[in-house]
Design goal:
Number of helices of chain A: 11
Oligomer: homodimer
Strand order of the largest sheet of chain A: 3-2-1-4-5-6-14
Helix content of chain A: 25-40%
């Protein structure tokens, strides 16, 4: 059995807890938290320890799934833990992945550990699909669409508008853009043409709704470049109809083959997820298995999903996989 | 530059020739054929050699892409060549993959070479997607649908019916079945519920069309278990409207996460291919790159796509891939 620890216990940590429980070859050693361990009640009743003590548990843990946030937690936690443990994280600030990789690689190599970073669905499963599709169809172009799903960052941005009590923002791919991409014409699409933004807003009593709507729609970076719709609803409606954290998206590559590019092909990968954090956590757990195995075979340093042979993700052995899945 | 040889020059070999030409880090050393080399005119004007002489070219070739058929060619050719070369094949008789793997593994290990078998889209890209989806969502079920596309085996079966001059058969997934699968209800689907078979038949002059149609529709294994439609057309119409070799399909997995399976997810991968052999050949060429690299790092024996780290398929280095695709 692979002994797994979870560092951080928010939505992602809880998702990882459930996914480890669902794995036949893993056992959850415990959750490590920066909060008071006594204050934390886990879903499965597993052990809870203080993050400050994690090095004392080193010999009992094969791999740590780090469930912190990309903005401030992971840039510090992942290199720090990778010096002592095999680790997995879901670092998703795309522009900073090279820097995070370098920092983690140095630490993991020093400690002789394996660290797989930026695991999840984007980055993660979408990265894999961009790579496979490009490798097979080098003469082509790929597109990534997100949604329909809740964007936490955009929901937070709305909540910062004066007079807003709560909000939920959905990112929605534009059907016409998806169809244009699938047609193989390799269209150049603007930001506005690719995605819509739909906002459900609970206003404070007496707030100026027209001003709120205008402030949202003209907000630079977040909304100004998109066709945005704003719906004002009650707190009860928000709770009843928008409590979930769904997400998903599409990676589509079209490309040509033949002596003169005579033939066109479309490769499409899509996800439709009821729970973004639970799915992300499920990917993390599969790669935790791979990290433990790679390190057991002497493979150290930082990796991404692109560096991991697919078979390492499965609890089944090669012979069974060949028989059943190839 | 990776020096590639192509063994066998049918549709797949020609597709490989085009794909190698389209690769920035590969050069085509030549085509090897069992026919008289002088009789063979290649698309790119590359060198043509006799298969009997291939061992004399051993030092000039990094990897051989074997483009024979699964029925009789590959079970012999792949182990024989794997003893002396890194090789790739597209062996697609699913039930015999374990046996073919074992034979090839023994030969490749003896020769210190790397052999990646069963490369293409099914087996191949579809195998990968079945594995990734199962590893991430172990609590779920996957489905594979094929088409819309030309089945060579079924077209051949029709041609063997008395009175048939030529034929083309399309395998078509049933939309209602696709929708039922995507709904996450994990339906049990019969053969008939999953795919339709549509046949375009050129009859010989004076042939009994009703008898031909009946013989096709009741043919065991090939058509009896399906809803089959038969259209009689002229040889000119067949040539004009059905000359291509399109194919494609879907791998869909639905699964549940959460403490009690509260949340559902859908992972879908699909291909829409204008040319089945050219796309298959493009996958072979990407894996040829991987085989040469794996062997250069000392990795011997038989592999499938499940054993190959994705980054090995790309001509780009890790830093570029992380920056651009992760």
């Amino acid at each position: 059995m692979i002994k797994v620890a979870i560092a951080g216990y928010g939505n992602l940590g809880r998702g990882a807890e459930c996914a480890v429980k669902n794995s036949t070859d893993m056992e959850l050693y415990g959750v490590f938290t920066r909060r008071d361990p006594a204050s934390l009640k886990t879903l499965t009743g597993c052990e809870v320890y203080s993050m400050d003590d994690i090095l004392n548990h080193k010999d009992n843990i094969d791999v740590v799934i780090i469930c912190g946030g990309s903005a401030t937690d992971l840039p510090v936690q992942t290199p720090a833990l990778a010096r002592h443990f095999n680790v997995i994280d879901s670092f998703d600030t795309h522009a900073k992945i090279p820097e995070h990789f370098a920092n983690t690689d140095a630490a993991a190599n020093e400690g002789g550990k394996c660290a797989i970073i930026s695991v999840g669905w984007d980055p993660g499963m979408f990265s894999l699909n961009r790579l496979y599709a490009e490798a097979v169809l080098p003469n082509g172009k790929d597109y990534t669409f997100w949604g329909k799903g809740v964007s936490q960052g955009h929901s937070d941005a709305i909540r910062r508008v004066a007079g807003v009590a709560d909000a939920r923002q959905y990112t929605i791919p534009v059907d016409a853009a998806l169809d244009a991409v699938r047609s193989g014409t390799c269209p150049e699409l603007t930001t506005r043409e690719k995605h819509l933004r739909e906002c459900f807003v609970v206003a404070e009593e007496g707030a100026d709704l027209a001003r709120i709507e205008n402030e949202i729609k003209t907000m630079p970076n977040y909304f100004a470049d998109y066709d945005t719709t704003v719906h004002f609803i009650t707190a009860e409606e928000l709770k009843r109809d928008h409590a979930g954290i769904p997400h998903g998206g599409f990676v589509i590559r079209t490309g040509k083959t033949g002596l003169n590019g005579e033939n066109s092909h479309v490769i499409e990968y899509s996800l439709k997820l009821d729970s973004n954090p639970e799915f992300t956590a499920s990917v993390l757990v599969a790669y935790a298995r791979a990290a433990a195995r790679m390190n057991a075979k002497g493979d150290n340093g930082a990796k991404t999903v692109l560096d991991v042979a697919p078979a390492l993700l499965s609890p089944c052995d090669g012979a069974e996989l060949r028989k059943r899945l190839v």
